[in-house]
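Researcher: Structure prediction, please.
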Amino acid sequence: MTTKTARELAETYFTSWEAGDFDTLRELLAEDVDFVGALGTASGVEEALAGLKGLGQVLEKIDVKVRVAEGSEVITWFDLCTSVAPPTPTANWMHVEDGKVARIRVTFDPCALLAGFEKRS
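Model: Predicted structure follows.
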């Protein structure tokens, strides 16, 4: 099996998440993946998948605007389109080690999403 580049891993990560394919996502993430984002943090593959599944319940589309990769680093700029808020401009940075996503940092303004979640409750 050929090892994917960091860019290919990022592309697969986003298409899998958008499709709700969490088995493929699990294969992409390092066991000790470290996630820090606007809505929380996660340590390890199980916590990271739980967070992705949670947001996945309202995820409609990931509209990628640009992806920049250099070596083991990838930044993806996209609109996070959900059923509870207008499209949210989002930046996602990933670091890849040994062919797996090891670190993820995500930043966006969470206000509209949080308000949307509150309305659903």
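Model: The mean pLDDT is 95.
Researcher: Thanks, that helps.
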